[in-house]
Amino acid sequence: MLDEGSSLPIQGVSINWDKIDENSYLRRIDAIKDLDYLAFRKNITIFVGENGSGKSTMLEAIAVNYGFNPEGGTRNYSFSTYDSHSELCDAIRLSRGFNKPGWGYFLRAESFYNVASAEEEYSRLGGVPQHFHERSHGESFLQLVQTNFKGHGLYLLDEPEAALSPQRQLTLLLEIVNCAKEDSQFIMVTHSPILLGIPGAEILSFDDGQIHPIDYEDTDSYQVTKMFIENREQLLNRLLN
Fold this sequence. Notes:
By secondary structure, the protein is of the alpha/beta class. The mean pLDDT is 84. The N and C termini lie far apart (48 Å). It has 7 helices and 9 strands, in the order βββααββααβαβββαα. It has helices at 55-66, 88-91, 112-123, 137-148, 166-181, 220-230, 232-240; strands at 10-15, 37-39, 44-48, 92-96, 103-108, 153-158, 185-189, 202-205, 212-213. The strands form 2 sheets. A 6-stranded mixed β-sheet has the order 5-6-7-3-8-9, sandwiched between helices. The radius of gyration is 18 Å and the shape is globular.
């Protein structure tokens, strides 16, 4: 059961706008420019929205503020190949629950190569090498998940479906659900209609000018996918002609 409760490691996030420059692009992101507090009520929270709506910016700020490396990894990772994270991480305050997670991971699809390279360096200093670069992108993603997802953890995932086939996305869905049942919290950004279908998850849309709950069937990811599958020929004819 994915219930609300004070045991969540991160119960919410507030923004101190006094710490953000008046000319910052953050003040032009409709979904967050008027946001004071965002509450998390379920073990699994999913951010959805159009590209540029601010969902990955918010997830990144939460991750960095919590202590994760901006490019991903565990809280023990401390490398940097390109400093691109926004100032939002310094302007937010996390409301933390009494139950501290025993493990955690920040997974970013766009910087996974950098994390895999850093893992190789760290493994030379001790630990079990994962050899991510010796596998396909999707195989490495799934191996990382199955190695690092544990109960009583905190996991922040930014578009984890990027390297995964639909079948592997179902495997990831199962890993997330099973881990959440063991008191783990997930906050995830995704466009995948498969991952959006996780039972009991709270879906928060960053569209329409503010962050708000949305039903699975009302998300663009579901509606566009359904429309394409059911009316593929008509839709393609309209687009291409």
